[in-house]
Design goal:
The chain is an alpha/beta fold. It contains 15 helices and 26 strands. The protein is elongated. It binds flavin-adenine dinucleotide (FAD).
Length: 552
């Protein structure tokens, strides 16, 4: 942890050097001593210190300086460091100014120059003030901080990106943190472009794109080799399992993930039916463990890159990424899973990130402490979400089209029934959302009677199913009308393989209509849409890839 700062400011170089010398002599062991020759210079340094989240314990400032007086400097500096102790260095003639400053800025002390001997006239005063400061100071957060306003879609997606990539950060809420707001307001972009990411070294990124941020925080965003045995598309359970098995069996493997490893499972607050975890495991934890395991076996994990298309260049396959780069390989495992279906109702799309969320939005849940939130959907993910929010929210209302929760596992239905602050609206849909800058109300429509009523609502979490994410192979492999990828015997039509299948052998169980391109997990037609099933398919595919590699 960096030492707190004592900051001395005086425009006369000899005086400034003398103050610095005396401060170092007595305080150096516990404090970092900084100095500046003018109020303007000092303010610049104070802003940088604030940006890097350093602590300032005390300002020792000459009152009579050209351009900016000591009091004027303190007025500005205290906006950023309201708790710092403040001492003016004055001449006899300045005592009036010092007394005014006591009233104006709560000046702690003024010291008459010269302060010789410091043992009597400087150190006891500062020791007392610093002891007082220390008793109330909280150690500053030493990691990445994200400054923004709570109800902002951009802040939400950035926080979600960091938390899903397991990067710890501190949220700085500019709606309530006045010193931080002062700091951001005084930067070149001011409050016009948020969020701002502040790093411990004092550097910042304003509204960074996911890939820029990923690079800055040390995630790998580019593949290291020109050629791989296997490229895995997607870092959900199927892709991670594929990467673990492929890499552990000696195949040069790279996994490309557009967002954060863990996939849909990574957004689950608790997975209770995955083998080997009798009291459940959070999706985040499972993702972290699997990602570490894949890396440990030597798989590369490239983050914040979308696979935009896959081509064949026989006998090789070419995987094209969103930055335009291409990965050549022998085999591809498409494990791109599903993405949530959007709720088509007036007002909803405008409020995403500011009260309306798709999925569990775990990073936002605490914001809705003691509020009334609504969950749409009757599946297990909605049930888990409702249980999770019930720990924070005053009331959770589940809205379903059906007459009861018949699409949900019984263990979750039982839990929901036992939870006092969860209630259920059956045969109902959300037909509109309203709000100005943030969600305030939703319209609920009874699907039998058509009766609509508007209700106040603090947050709406939507879990209304998903669609496969397989656009990157749309023109390459056989898919069904919804976009699920057909594999193995599911490719047979009237006993015939599709025309694109030209090999004498039959496709492997999870092989698509293009040899060497495999699909596993939720994106595959006929898969069970469960974590364990996706893990099983992802790992089983690797043995098929081994067999395929013997043929090329
Ligand atoms: C909230 C929630 C709770 C759930 N709870 C449970 C549970 O308790 N038990 C259970 O068994 N199942 C549960 N499920 C279902 C389970 O999570 C899924 O079946 C499982 O995650 C599917 O794994 P997958 O790897 O096939 O796909 P996904 O998990 O969907 O992962 C696919 C990955 O591919 C990435 N991707 C997609 N397209 C591209 C591209 N073009 N380029 C790069 N990357 C791409 C995505 O970003 C994603 O990370 C839950 C699902 C949700 C949403």
């Amino acid at each position: 942890m960096a030492k707190p700062v004592i900051f001395a400011i005086d425009d006369e170089p000899e005086v400034l050097n003398a103050v610095e010398r005396d401060l170092r002599h007595h305080f150096q062991a516990e404090y970092r001593i900084m100095k500046a020759g003018s109020g303007a210079q000092a303010l610049e340094a104070v802003r940088l210190l604030k940006q890097s989240n350093a602590s300032i314990a005390l300002f020792l400032v000459d009152e009579r300086m050209p351009g900016m007086t000591g009091t004027q400097f303190l007025i500005e500096a205290l906006k950023l460091y309201p708790d710092a102790r403040r001492v003016l260095l004055t001449a006899y003639a300045d005592t009036e100014a010092a007394i005014t400053a006591i009233n104006q800025i709560g000046l702690d002390q003024y010291l008459l120059k010269p302060w010789e001997p410091p043992e009597q006239r400087l150190y006891p005063v500062l020791d007392d003030l610093l002891g007082d400061w220390m008793a109330h100071a909280r150690p500053p957060y030493d990691g990445i901080r994200v400054a923004g306003t709570t109800l902002s879609a951009a802040s939400y997606s950035l926080k979600d990106f960091l938390s899903r990539n397991l990067v710890p950060y501190q949220w700085v809420d500019l709606d309530v943190d006045t010193p931080a707001r002062e700091l951001i307001a005084s930067s070149p972009d001011g409050m016009s472009r948020l969020p701002v990411v502040m790093f411990p070294d004092g550097t910042t990124m304003v509204q960074p794109a996911a890939r820029e941020l990923a690079e800055r925080i040390g995630l790998q965003t580019r593949a290291q080799r020109p050629f791989y045995d296997v490229v895995v598309v997607g870092g959900g359970p199927a892709g991670l399992a594929g990467a673990v098995y492929a890499a552990s069996e000696g195949l040069h493997t790279v996994l490309v993930e557009r967002d954060a490893t863990g996939g849909q499972a990574g957004t689950s607050s608790k997975i209770e039916n995955y083998l080997g975890f009798p009291s459940g495991i959070s999706g985040e934890d499972l993702a972290r463990r699997a990602t570490t395991q894949a890396r440990r076996f030597g798989a590369e994990i490239v983050s914040a890159q979308d696979v935009t298309c896959i081509r064949r260049n026989d006998p090789y396959r070419v995987v094209v990424l969103s930055d335009g780069s291409e990965l050549n390989c022998k085999a591809v495992l498409v494990a791109s899973g599903m993405e949530v279906r959007r709720l088509e109702a007036p007002g909803v799309s405008e409020l995403v990130g500011v009260g309306v969320y798709y999925g569990a939005a775990l990073s936002e849940a605490v914001m809705y402490r003691d509020k009334h939130v609504y969950v749409i959907g009757g599946g297990n993910s909605a049930g888990q979400g409702a249980m999770f929010f019930s720990r924070f929210a005053r009331q959770v209302t589940i809205v379903v089209r059906t007459a009861k929760l018949d699409a949900m596992s019984q263990y979750l239905v039982d839990r929901i029934n036992d939870t006092k602050n969860i209630d259920l609206r059956t045969r109902t849909v959300v037909s509109a959302a309203r709000g100005d800058g943030k969600l305030t109300a939703i319209t609920l429509t009874d699907i039998e009677t058509g009766t609509a009523s508007e209700e106040a609502c603090d947050a709406l979490f939507i879990f209304i199913g998903s669609a496969p994410r397989t656009q990157m192979v749309a023109d390459l492999v056989e898919r069904d009308a919804q976009g699920f990828i057909l594999t193995g015997r599911d490719l047979l039509v009237d006993g015939h393989w599709p025309r694109s299948w030209t090999l004498a052998r039959d496709p492997f169980l999870f092989e698509t209509s293009v040899p060497g391109i495999f699909a596993a997990g939720d994106a595959r037609w006929g898969s069970s849409k469960r974590v364990a099933a996706a893990v099983g398919e992802g790992s089983a595919t690797i043995s098929m890839i081994h067999q395929y590699l013997q043929t090329v």
